[in-house]
Amino acid sequence: MKRPVLVLGLLALVSFANYVDRMVLSALAQPIKAEFALSDAQLGLLTGFAFVLIYSFTGVPLARLADRTNRAVVLAAALALWSLATAACGLTGSFAGLVIARVFVGIGESGCQPIGYGLIGDYFPAERRALAMGWFMVGNSLGITAGFAIGGWIGALYGWRAAFVVVGIPGLLLALAVATLLRAPAQAHSAAARASAPPLLGALRLLLADSRYRWLLAVQGAYSFLIFGPISWLPAYFTRVLGLPLKTVGTWTGLTVGIGMGLGMLCGGGVADRLVRRSLSSPQWFGCIASLGTGAAWLVVMLIAQPVWAFIATFVAAGIAALGAPVNVASVQNVCDPRLRATAASLTTLATSLIGIGLAPYVIGVLSDTFAPALGKEALRYAILASLPACFIAAALFARLARLLQEPPAQPALA
């Protein structure tokens, strides 16, 4: 498979599978909570840190392996692992077993984003890269839609365990397609780069010596906290606070978040590609505005009590939240050495994982438990609201990065 558009289509399917398997747990949070008698903090642990801790620490070596061997083959193996582990989530009979299965989902999924970004960096030049990243991320958003919808429908009809099996098994076929269709072209395209790539510790030193890259990591963490914190709790919020049935919540949360984010990522990627032709710093100012808009949009969602308008507001909020997502991931590929692309992306994925996917759901869960004695079912609403000042931190970091990118880079030579 040699045409970039076909490569991008297959990678978008992998990204789709990645987020279906990831978000189905959030869609099934309420029945899992009821069956295992969990607290919100335990739910936050399950949806966040149980997945993220291993995800974070395995992503970097997996990405480095991909940079030094064959990115497509490593991606296919990772996809097969997380698909099997997702199916295993439906076969466990205990909370501990579910945590262990999610750990293995995290190990496999830790390779998806960084290796995908690295492949896109290989196939697309800088002035087309952000929009390509946006299309790759459309797989994320559609996966969110499918994860919520499938989790809601299958969970309501056949139980939450069946939903995990249904979303896990098809990933094995997709893994076979990735290994078969991408293997030879990816091998040929990156052979010279692999031959001269430094080892893991040397690569990390080179990346972190660049102050631009360090600020990119900080931006990624703050912005992901703002996105994934509220989204991870939306199904529980609509079920618990607004009193909606699981099927309705799964379908409409999936549609509004998934389609909203997909449109936002494409718009954000298109704008970023136009802005980067002016300068490397211009897209960061766009990210600054998107951060502030995201905080305001989630505030509106949390203040609406009527379900129909709440879902409309969620669609708008998800779209605004996604505008800044292609900016940072494309910037990473633009500033780093081509031989370090997957490794560089893995560190930004680590920041997203620890702060956005791991810390944010857990913080909101702890706040909800803290507020519950006084606020009852409304506690979750106010816990999400309490997370929104992160928008000011993200905006400030984007602004600082924009100013830094206006200065001439001081990059060390590769060993």
Q: Mind explaining what this structure looks like?
A:
With 415 residues, the chain is an all-alpha fold. The chain has a single domain, classed as MFS general substrate transporter like domains (Growth Hormone, Chain: A), CATH 1.20.1250. The protein has 21 helices and no strands. Helix 4 runs antiparallel to helix 19, helix 5 packs antiparallel against helix 9 and helix 7 crosses helix 19. The chain is globular, with a radius of gyration of 20 Å. The C terminus is likely disordered.
Determine the CATH superfamily.
Answer: MFS general substrate transporter like domains
The geometry reads as globular
Q: What is the typical, i.e. mean, pLDDT? A: 83
Fraction of residues in β-strands: under 5%
Largest sheet: none
Task: Give structural attributes.
415 residues, mainly alpha, Growth Hormone, Chain: A, 85% helix, globular, disordered C terminus
How does the SSE layout of this entry go?
Blueprint: H1 4-27, H2 29-36, H3 40-47, H4 49-68, H5 71-89, H6 95-109, H7 112-123, H8 126-158, H9 160-168, H10 170-181, H11 183-189, H12 191-195, H13 200-208, H14 211-240, H15 246-276, H16 282-303, H17 307-323, H18 325-335, H19 341-375, H20 379-387, H21 390-405
Brief summary of the model shown:
The chain is mainly α.
